[in-house]
């Protein structure tokens, strides 16, 4: 079956990574930095019509949360690695003369007893002022970045953001929104999950949302002592499902018709790349891809057959992802087990894109953007 891409794939926001040095036109540049449990990522972009053009980017695995599960603190080695990465980001911001930016930290810094101290260290060492955002804002930013992938026929939407230290799930009811307005209704959630009563637009209704303190790194750490690869995978999937019991839609029966799941994470994009047989990652082929549940199950079974050694050398997975792919796959399998659906939409976008959209929308610099 040929891979499918919805009409909105690649549309606004369009965070295309630059193939070389891109010289920005005159005008303000915006930056978004996401410091997670495992990775440090940054985008610098310029608004263009109803999209934005990326002019510089940075991504590095820093493993900030390594050892956090056991000690409750960020280790000195992890903080040093992260500060080194943030120095590079600071250099890029200075080089591009960026004045408008949001630099955020998520679950690892929220949970660590020395998270605030680390924020002060970062400011002293790099000059960057990072803010630790709360789970609701993290979930909201992930949702609005996925707006272009929402189908016009989608009535019930589940957006899943699998991070390093936590997983955010947001359930949205779009039945009261005209079909052609549904992607825009998702974008308007940048101002908050509570409905804006003064708005003249039909609103997307957030039925429920949850931030589970289990991501690819923290879930892996929970079961590191289990020697059997298959048993560890099964236990991780079961444990994650148990942690969804308080999520209201978890117990609801959903009709497959009009129901869409969008997954945004390195796990989801890696599974998609494996399904496509990509030895070199290609965002243009992955972002917006719709995978069937059977195709996802097949990839996960292949991962299990490969075992730890096979996954380590598999070019489809990559060295940075191989240590975390099975915990992410366990989360993905649990979600597909709870909500039987024929398809999952793959989003190669997330917090950084949501941060950029929120800033540009608030400034009114995007065509058709909402203030």
Supply the key terms.
371 residues, alpha/beta, Nucleotidyltransferase, domain 5, 2 domains, six-stranded mixed sheet, five-stranded mixed sheet, 11 strands, globular, disordered N terminus
Descriptive report:
It is a single chain. The protein has 371 residues and is α/β, with parallel strands linked by helices. It has 2 domains: 30-135, Nucleotidyltransferase, domain 5, CATH 3.30.420.40; 137-347, Exopolyphosphatase. Domain 2 (Nucleotidyltransferase, domain 5). The protein contains 13 helices and 11 strands. The strands form 2 sheets. A 6-stranded mixed beta sheet has the order 8-7-6-9-11-10. Strands 3-2-1-4-5 form a 5-stranded mixed beta sheet. Helix 2 crosses helix 4 and helix 7 (216-222) crosses helix 12 (325-338). The chain is globular, with a radius of gyration of 20 Å. 47% of the residues are buried.
List the helices and strands and how they pair.
Layout: E1 30-35, E2 39-48, E3 51-61, H1 68-71, H2 76-95, E4 100-105, H3 107-111, H4 115-126, E5 131-132, H5 135-145, E6 156-162, E7 167-173, H6 182-187, E8 205-212, H7 216-222, H8 229-242, E9 259-264, H9 266-276, H10 283-286, E10 290-292, H11 293-313, H12 325-338, E11 343-347, H13 351-363
What is the compact description of this entry?
By secondary structure, this protein is an alpha/beta fold. Helices cover 38% and strands 19% of the residues.
pLDDT under 50 segments (min length 5)?
1-21
Distance between the termini: 42 Å
CATH topology of the largest domain: Nucleotidyltransferase, domain 5
Query: Largest sheet, order of strands side by side?
Result: 8-7-6-9-11-10
- Overall structural class, as computed from helix and strand content, comes to alpha/beta
> What is the C-alpha radius of gyration, as a whole number of Å?
20 Å
- Beta-strand proportion: 15-25%
Number of alpha- plus pi-helical segments: 13
The CATH superfamily of the largest domain is known as Exopolyphosphatase. Domain 2
């Amino acid at each position: 079956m040929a891979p499918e891409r919805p009409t909105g794939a690649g549309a606004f926001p369009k965070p295309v990574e630059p193939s070389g040095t891109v010289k920005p036109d005159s005008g303000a540049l915006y930056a978004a930095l996401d410091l997670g449990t495992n990775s440090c990522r940054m985008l610098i972009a310029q608004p263009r019509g109803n999209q934005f053009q990326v002019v510089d980017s940075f991504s590095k695995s820093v493993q900030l949360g390594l050892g956090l599960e056991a000690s409750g603190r960020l280790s000195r080695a992890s903080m040093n690695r992260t500060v080194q990465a943030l120095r590079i980001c600071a250099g890029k911001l200075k080089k591009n003369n960026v004045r408008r930016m949001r630099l955020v930290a998520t679950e690892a810094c929220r949970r660590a007893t020395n998270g605030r101290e680390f924020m002060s260290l970062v400011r002293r060492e790099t000059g960057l002022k990072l803010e630790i955002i709360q789970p609701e804002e993290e979930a909201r930013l992930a949702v609005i970045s996925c707006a272009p992938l929402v189908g016009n026929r989608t009535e019930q939407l589940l957006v899943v953001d699998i991070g390093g230290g936590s997983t955010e799930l947001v359930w949205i009811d779009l039945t009261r929104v005209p079909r052609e307005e549904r992607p825009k209704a998702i974008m308007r959630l940048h101002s908050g999950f509570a409905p804006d009563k003064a708005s003249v637009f039909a609103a997307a209704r957030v039925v429920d949302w949850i931030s589970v303190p289990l991501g690819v790194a923290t879930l892996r750490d929970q079961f590191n002592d289990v020697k059997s690869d298959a048993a560890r995978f099964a236990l991780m999937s079961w444990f994650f499902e148990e942690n969804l019991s308080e999520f209201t839609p978890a117990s609801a029966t959903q009709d497959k018709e009009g129901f869409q799941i969008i997954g945004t994470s390195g796990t989801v994009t890696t599974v998609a790349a494996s399904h496509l047989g990509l030895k070199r990652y290609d965002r243009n082929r992955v972002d917006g891809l719709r995978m069937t549940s059977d195709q996802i199950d097949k990839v996960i079974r292949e991962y299990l057959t490969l075992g730890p050694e096979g996954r380590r050398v598999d070019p489809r997975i990559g060295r940075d992802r191989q240590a975390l792919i099975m915990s992410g796959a366990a989360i993905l399998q649990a979600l597909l087990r709870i909500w039987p659906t024929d398809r999952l939409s793959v989003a190669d976008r997330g917090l950084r894109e949501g941060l950029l959209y929120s800033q540009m929308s608030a400034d009114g610099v995007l065509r058709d953007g909402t203030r």
